[in-house]
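Researcher: I'm preparing a figure for a lab meeting and need a structural model of a single chain. I don't have an experimental structure, so a prediction will have to do for now. The sequence is pasted below. Please return the structure as tokens so I can convert it later.
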Amino acid sequence: MTATVFVQPLDLIKNRMQLSGEGGKVREHRTSFHAIARVVRSEGVLGLYNGLSAGLFRQATYSTTRLGVYQSLFDNFSGADGKPPGVLTKIGIGVVAGAIGAFVGTPAEISLIRMTSDGRLPLEQRRGYKNVFNALFRISREEGILTLWRGCGPTMVRAMVVNAAQLATYSQAKQLLLTLDHFHDNIICHFAASMISGLVTTLASMPVDIAKTRIQTMQTINGVPEYKGAIDVLTKLIRREGFFSLWKGFTPYYARLGPHTVLTFIFLEQFRMLYYGYSKRRKDGVAQ
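Model: Understood. Here is the structure written out token by token.
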């Protein structure tokens, strides 16, 4: 959750970029840096932290559930001798854990999307949520409790893509790097493999992420929602804004996901090496 304090501005800028030029309108932001400057100029420096409470609540719900489910399934699929499950099983576990975590975290996600995008709307259209709990209460009261899970499908798909892509591409990238003379199984190799994994994960998950963002911020006019679903979002997006609009907000998205992927796998590798080193020393001690 501490990391959320540092990456919250990136989340806000990513969401603003994904909504910029919606429906074929003139883009509000030319680049991510232009978006940052505009937010600071119109909303102040603290405007970059709009939705921080929702970001923290998302971590408390999504991440906690995802890690808890992952560890439980990991232990369940490990061998009786403590042997960890294979790569494909780990990917499957990651996909399931990501989907369950995303379902639990969707109310926090929709609150975050709305709070970070509120500043771009005209004053009369702004929702003005005070914090994540105020957002959850008002959404339930004004739009119905099921609205808290609007965009749940693409949110779960995005989580599944992210978890599967991270695990699969990291393992493969590390394996390929170790075939080169310049790399050995150390932190430099882990860093390079993590950056590659973060890049591939960003490219694979962004189209689903922008569909999620558009659905969760859409308005219902005369009882008719702007979009029918994720496919409708992507179809209209490509037709009105161009194919490469699927990757709007790439820079802040990768700037957020890249370091997260790096730290995740570097710590994972270090703990793995410590564990196997400890196990080896323990076995050697018993043998003596």
